[in-house]
Design goal:
alpha/beta, 4-stranded mixed sheet, 11 helices, elongated
């Protein structure tokens, strides 16, 4: 019987994520498409600048900016359809509490990638989120995924926040850089990933196996559950190994976005280093 590692080694070299980084262009939903904020608004300087710089996005419908921000945007994007407003007038166009930093853009939704596009060939590391629903947490997780070189993130069609608005603000531009695949059934997706040669590592605080020990250099999918209830039992049953993050300080747990950052760093060290070495 051929091992997962042997099957992996026969695949073509990893060529990086799909063109443009996170998404393909287009206006309509597709298989694996990311759920977008129905209003289409993205706000916050880093999120807006990254969205405007993304060649896979269609031209924005509206760009709202304070006078100072408008001058900054004109220098970078001379042909933008700018509407110059004061801070309070921008805030009234956005959801309550939106911290817009003087700029917001209304832009058509991006299309996501399919699971197959994200996972073939098996190399590097992926992150799967099981019912992590807080947009601030998911945005922060995307930011860490971009920082540590994750190949992409897998979300469920339901029980996941829309990829825009508060999530985009928290992601600080990472929404444009990290490929995202949405799937109907996470358990079936894990079966598919196993068949493709991925090691499935679930994060659980009560596991006696550390994440460092669980990651053995093979392409890996890190699976993280919600902050309140953790990973669902069915999803855990589809993992090859459950692993924990050692906490010598004695504190019981981390926020899910902080735990994801630690896990992604460890994966970049144990899996990402191997990928970099093979490319060289």
């Amino acid at each position: 019987m051929t091992s997962s590692r042997e099957r992996n080694d026969r695949k073509a070299p990893f060529r990086g994520p799909p063109r443009g980084g996170a998404f393909r262009g287009g206006k309509g939903p597709s298989r694996g498409a990311a759920a977008a904020d129905p209003s289409g608004w993205i706000w916050g300087w880093h999120a807006v600048e990254a969205a405007l710089a993304n060649p896979d996005r269609d031209p924005p419908a509206k760009v709202l900016a304070t006078p100072d921000r408008a001058e900054q945007l004109k220098a970078l994007h001379p042909r933008l359809p700018l509407e110059i407003l004061e801070n309070g007038d921008i805030a009234r166009r956005l959801p309550p509490g939106a911290s817009h930093q003087g700029v917001a853009v209304q832009t058509p939704a991006l299309e996501g990638v399919t699971l197959e596009e994200l996972a073939e060939p098996a190399e590097g590391f992926l992150l799967m989120l099981d019912q992590v629903t807080d947009p601030q947490n998911v945005g922060a997780i995307l930011r860490s995924a971009a920082a540590f070189g994750a190949r992409g993130v897998i979300l469920q069609d339901r029980h996941a926040p829309q990829l825009g608005g508060a999530l985009a603000k928290a992601a600080a531009g990472a929404l444009e850089k990290v490929p995202a695949a949405r799937v109907v059934n996470l358990a079936r997706a894990l079966d598919k990933l196993t068949d493709l040669g991925w090691l499935i590592v679930g994060l659980a605080g009560d596991s006696d196996t550390t994440l460092e020990a669980a990651l053995d250099g093979r392409p890996a999918v890190l699976v993280m559950g919600s902050e309140g209830e953790g990973m669902r039992r069915l999803i855990g049953e589809h993992c090859d190994v459950m692993a924990s993050i050692p906490m010598p300080g004695g504190f019981e747990s981390l926020n899910v976005s902080n735990a994801a950052a630690v896990a992604l760093y460890e994966a970049s060290r144990k899996v990402g280093a191997r990928v970099t070495g093979e490319r060289g």
